[in-house]
Structure formats: C-alpha cells, structure tokens
TrEMBL record:
Keyword hit for Cell membrane: no
Primary enzyme class: transferase
UniProtKB keywords: Glycosyltransferase, Transferase
Domain of life from the UniProt record: Bacteria
Keyword Glycosyltransferase tagged: yes
Source species: Methylocaldum szegediense
EC identifiers of the protein: 2.4.1.187
Phylogenetic lineage: Bacteria, Pseudomonadati, Pseudomonadota, Gammaproteobacteria, Methylococcales
GO molecular function: N-acetylglucosaminyldiphosphoundecaprenol N-acetyl-beta-D-mannosaminyltransferase activity
Protein name according to UniProt: N-acetylglucosaminyldiphosphoundecaprenol N-acetyl-beta-D-mannosaminyltransferase
Length: 195
C-alpha cells in the first residue's frame, strides 16, 4: 500500500476494499501486524508525541479514518483518499472471521462492557470464535500474563479497545510478542457494541 505523509504523520492510501485485502493477506500470513486508524486528532497529537508517531510508523495498515484526513490529503495535493472508518472495518473483519471460522480475542474496555462484547460478537457473527477476552485495566506487571493468555488462546484476530494513544502504544509494544495475525485498535468501539 502507498503510504503518504500528512503533516509528518503517515497514513495509507487505501480504500475500503483495499484495506480488507490487506487484512486478508495478514490472515494468510505468519507475521503479526497491527492496524491503526488515523484521524485529525491523532495527526495533531502525533506531531507532539514521538512515541505515538513511532507506534503509527510500525503499523502494517494505517486507515484514513474520517473525512478530515481525506480533505487534508487533497489540500496537500497528495491525491484523493477515500474514507475508511475503523468503526466500519471492525465489523468487516468480524464478517471475514465468521466466514473463515477464525479465533478472536477481545482486549479492552470495562469488565462489564468487555464481557458483553464477548457474548454479543458470536451471536452477531455466527462462526466467529471468541477464544478469550480481557478488560482494559490490566496493570503493567500483569502484561506478561496477558500476552501469555492471548498466545495460549491461539487467537488469530485481536481487537484492542483502550482508547488512543494507549492502544497504539500497547500494540507497538506487544504485537511483536503475540502469535495473532491481525490486531486492530478499535478505540471506544466495544462501548458502542455493548450499547
Ligand atoms: N479504556 C481501557 N483501559 C484504560 C483506559 C480506557 O480499556 O486504561 C477503554 C475505556 O473503557 C473505553 C475506551 O478505552 O472503552 C475508550 O476510552 P476513553 O474514551 O477514555 O479513551 P479515548 O478514546 O477518549 O482516548
């Protein structure tokens, strides 16, 4: 995918089908990759936060999340991007996962919300196998256990809902230790799914 630069912050020039194609390739491959959404807020923050910028740079896929990013790219003469919302990509990944009988782990949000999402997803996407879930308030000393749990679950897809920039920093730090194939940072999506 072509990676462009908006005010020093990377974003991939993908449309929705192309983003899904990249997800498909990650699911076929052996190297864990993570997906982050780039929105105007994150662009502004990453300009002042080198750790967030580094995290974004190590993502396999950076989706242009929102019309603000599309406009910025056009205004900068970087061509026409099309909007790929993280909130739309997650359900699409769940559909692929359901069709392929993939194993999913859900990390993030409050214990209540996390548990609800673990119940709701397999109902909404029959075939999707939620093999583990963990709320988003794990303390640093307990991270090795979380990593071990995710790997023991044999999850292939991991959704991380810690909000930003927490989830991007987490994915940069821990995805290299994980045996998952695809990891997506989904912000507040678990709260939306839990209703
Ligand atoms: N969250 C979490 N762990 C944390 C902080 C936040 O799991 O240490 C979850 C929170 O429960 C919510 C999501 O991250 O589901 C987004 O949180 P918030 O709106 O506070 O973050 P923002 O998106 O505003 O950065």
């Amino acid at each position: 995918n072509q990676r462009i630069d908006i005010f020093g912050v990377p974003v991939d020039a993908v449309d929705f089908p192309r983003a899904l194609e990249t997800v498909g390739k990650l699911l076929e491959g052996d190297h864990a990759g993570f997906i982050a959404a780039v929105n105007p807020e994150k662009i502004m923050r990453a300009r002042d936060d080198v750790r967030l910028l580094e995290a974004l740079n190590s993502a396999k896929l950076l989706i242009p999340d929102g019309i603000g990013v599309v406009w910025a790219a056009r205004w900068l003469g970087l061509g026409r991007l099309s909007r790929v919302a993280g909130a739309d990509l997650m359900p699409a990944i769940c559909e692929i996962g359901a069709a392929q009988g993939r194993k999913v782990f859900l990390y993030g949000a409050s214990p209540d919300v996390n548990g609800k999402v673990a119940r709701i997803l397999p109902e909404r996407y029959p075939g999707l196998r939620v093999v583990g879930h963990q709320h988003g308030y794990v303390r640093e000393p307990d991270m090795p256990k979380l990593v071990a749990d995710i790997n023991a679950s044999q999850a292939e897809i991991l959704f991380v809902a810690l909000g930003s920039p927490r989830q991007e920093l987490w994915m940069r730090r821990y995805v290299p230790e994980l045996a998952v194939k695809v990891c997506q940072g989904v912000g507040g999506s678990f709260d939306v799914i839990a209703g």
